[in-house]
Predict the structure of Protein Wnt.
Amino acid sequence: MSVNNDKCSPVPLLATRPESAGWKPTPPLSTAGCFARVVVDVKLTVSFAFVAVLFISQLPIQASGTGVLCDNIPGLVGRQRRLCRHHPDVMVSLAEGARLGVEECQYQFRSQRWNCTTLHRDASVFGKIMLKGSREAAFVYAISAAGVVHAITRACSKGQLQYCACDPTKRGTGTDRDGSKFDWGGCSDNVRYGSKFSRMFIDAKERKVRDARALMNLHNNRAGRRAVKKFRKLECKCHGVSGSCTIRTCWLAMQEFRRVGNYLKTKHNGATQVMINQEGTGLIVANLNHKPPTRSDLVYFEKSPDYCVRDPSIGSLGTTGRSCNKTSLGTDGCDIMCCGRGYDTITVRKVDKCECKFHWCCFVRCKECRRWVDVHTCKGPPGEERELSAQGRSFRPDLVANRGFKDIHGDSGGPKKDSKESRDDGKGASSRIGKRNRYF
């Protein structure tokens, strides 16, 4: 890669591409009127054009500032830059959709070894894990494409986009599954426009390159868009005297995005391993005993690593320090999450709202109830544990901070007295504070 960046001052705005893909780090581009020309190797196995969509989600993009950003976002091809400049309002929705996809990915994989971890302000967002054509990469492409369709379509229905509104094809009369007729009315979500813009923008790079990885990405992008179309429902409103349904007006509305995420997670679990055909024009199943994937299925090339041990070369963060459920037999259980290495246990104090009462008018007052709970975290390999211990990160309180745990006691003293009214069911728990058990 070569960059013509003589007059650009290094401003910490845009991150560089991963070095493992053959790129050398370059100074970020300034938005102060400078222009950078990037020469891209079209044989790269990863579509940085799509990764740029995820990178956009990390920027505080506003419609008024997209013109400058469009010229400086790494990985965009010409068609994407033109769409970015001509549709700044849609780019805002596209960024929201990419964030929606990332959040849903993290929810779906919250209890698995790979938990869809993102790297802050990194151009690849998910790190080197996206360099492999794995199941996880397939899911990321599908859920991100679905999130973009969902967000753009929602913005259409809200009247936030200049060239898009409610679905214009839903006019006249229609018939539901029971054969009952109704009149189209209201505002049907224009999924057609959201899907079309998503396809034009996200698929632009893959349609230009057309290598094996591009074919995989195109297939999974399409599967994500089809998932949004699948989860639409007919909503109706009755009109008539005394609540009678003399006239029924209906419209098509998208369902909550969580249903799309659940559906694509199921597709991830049943994804099909594929390889490119001899002509290099399409994908075929790697195992001839398996049925060919449909357009709604996810496909992948390479088997996933186990993600048990930290391995920067493949983007695996490992599971050292991850919280686990001692009693679960699923993927969130300590046996599976910790890869058989055992786990540590520490006692923490959890604070919950309780005995809430409504007071006129108009607020709710709650008491704080405190209780002592055991938190289990995975041990790491001996070498990795020594490294974390040297860095003071043998126990990661950030993993339990989002679960309502306020105080983490690592000393031998008892619980501190609180001036607020509380209910503490941890009598005698002071003898357990700071006690750290190790299970093998």
Q: What stands out?
A: The longest strand covers residues 343-359.
